[in-house]
Structure formats: structure tokens, C-alpha cells
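quick one before i forget lol
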Amino acid sequence: MMFKIALRNIFRRKRRSIITMLTMFVGFVLAAISIGWSDGTYNNIIDSFTRNRLGHIQIHSQGYLDKPSLYKNIENYDSLRNVIADIAGVEFTTPRLFASGLASLNDKSAGVRIIGVDPEIESRATHLDRKVAEGRYFSAQPSNKALLGRGLAKILKASVGDTIVIISQAADGSIANDLYAVFGIVESGDKMEDRASFYLHLEDAQQLLVLQNRIHEIAVICDNLADVPQTSAGIEEALNDSGLDVATWKEFAKSFYRAMRADKEGMWIMLVVILIMVAVGVLNTVLMSVLERTHEYGVLRALGTAPGQVFRLVIIEVLIIAVAGVIIGCGLSYLINDALSAHGVPLPETFTYGGVEFKRMYTEVNLRSFYIPALSVVVSAFLVSIFPAVKAARIPPAQAMRSV
């Protein structure tokens, strides 16, 4: 009975009901797009950053992440890569070797980070070949050639074809030194990284550092960012008792993860602001409706309607309008989020984050971009309608019937 009366009251005052519903509808759509935009941007940046550089998961010798050392290396990495490749969710695995060194050219010198990579695997996994701005990428066979970061090339005043002297420490305790021809200049997008990056063919790096058939890291690229926790657990189970540490991007890229979390928190602040606006709008329209219907509520009370029934009547009316606004908002916000997730929004200028270039920003269509705004709008509508409902329930019948 209450539901039927509430429906009649809603349609009896169509203008007021439409204004209230539009307030909730706009709030829902803004909240849904904000969450979809935040999730899409968040996941796009993380996936691009990890997929194109560090990997989603990294495997090292025990303790390497806490205190990197030339001697904390991985043997028989090819067999390990084969085991990892069979785990569900793994798309690529790429071996890497690292060391510190000193690079010299004529009277210029600079500290470098030697990075040994398998050219073919690295190009498929992180597209390193696409980052070569000058010269050429590595050939499949080792040839004592190197790729320099753009910043390092500027420091050394090196060009393609120059010969660089590298000095480092070898694993057998000797001084590692060799000559490498500059084969290409790399622009990763991360200027700090490019100031020190000195890429070598993996076999050349192993020979330089006397680490034959050894590496420091296996980077794993997953099929999807969402699969990372499950895939990491599968790798840990497969490599149990191997003396190796398995870490996800949240562990080996902590500063990046904290930055992403801070960005995510900004979305919640925006959502709270939207909900406050919705709540104020609903409170205003419902309170005005109660004041306009003072005489009507007085008649209901005079006819024997209990205060609790009047209270429920006001609440039910608001909830019906809120649910209607949410249902309509779901349809529109889905269409908008779906379009933006497919085509994205072109940016006025390309920007770089963590060495990855972004030309478009995308939203994401997921359940949370609907159920969070839906619950938030309905709950906030319910809460702000309590005061007007209490006011309507407490109206003295005699006084209310004298009002016009």
C-alpha cells in the first residue's frame, strides 16, 4: 500500500520528482565516469610501465632486491624460463644481467649501468628495439656492440660508430674491461635512466663480467595486469625451494606503486565531492517537497496515519526516485565508458610517465564503476531523506491542516 501511495505522489508532482531524479542521475553518471576514468588511467599507466620496462614480475637470487650484488646470480636460467613459461598467465620471460661500470670516450667518462639483454627476447617482451632513436638495434649474435641511453651519449659526446671503453669488476675478482662500438642510441623516455644505460648483448655482458650462463634477473610479462597476483603465486609454487625470490611490480617498484596509490586516492576525494553535491541537492528538493505538502501530511495524520507510516512514505518516495535515477544512469554511463575505453581521449600533448609515452587516455568498463556509484547514491539519498521524513512525521495535525 505504501509503495502505491508513494508512486502516486511521485507522478502527482512530476516536476519536483524529475528535478530530484536528475540530481541523482547526474551524480551517478559523474561518479561512474570518474571511477571508470581513474581505473582506466591507473591500469593503463601501470600496465604500460611494467610491460614496456620492468616486467610485471621479477625473479632474482635470494636477497638481490634488498642488496644487489654481482655474485647474487641465477644459474641454469634457460631451464627456469621453460618452467615459468608453462605457468598460466605468463606471456614472455626475458633474462637480464646487471653491473656497474665506468665508460670512457676520449677525455669524457661517466658511471654507467651495464644491462645485458637477449636481443630477440627483449624486443618481443619490452619492445626495446622500438626505443632505438639513432643507429640500429642488436643483431642476434654477440658482436661487441653497445646501445647507449640518449643522456649517456650526450655526457660522453658519443655518436653511432664511436668506440667506448668499459671498465668494471668481473665475478672472478679481476678487472673487466673491453671496447664496444656504439651501435645505437636509445630513448626510453626516462631521462634519468638514459643518463646511465649501457646495453650489451647478453653473451657479451656475460663474457665481460665472467658470468657465463648466469644472469641476475628473469623479468616476466603477464597476459593481463589483473593476472599478476595469481601468476606470481603459480611461479612461487613452481620454484619452491629453489632459493629464488619472486616479486611483483608492487614490491620492486615501490615508489611507482605509492605514486599510483596517491593518484587513486584523488579519485575517492572527487567521488566524495560528487556525493556531497548529490546529497545537498536531494536534501533541498525533498525538504521543499515536505514543506509544500504540510497540509497533506496533516490530513493523513488526522485520518489516523501513524507517524512511522508518514516517515516510511517519504523514505520510499526518495528511494524510488533514487533507483530510477541509478537505472537510467547505468545505461548512459555504460555507453560513455564503453566509447571512451575503445577510442580514448586524445591528449593535447604527449606526456611521459615512468619512461612510457601516452598519447590517449582510456576509461575502463568494470563492475565497480557501477555498483560503487549506485550504492553511494542510494545510501546518500536515504540518509539525507531521514531529516525531512522525521519532520513530516512530527507535523502536528491541527497546525498542519491550517496551513495552505
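fyi The chain has two domains: 2-49+257-402, 63-242.
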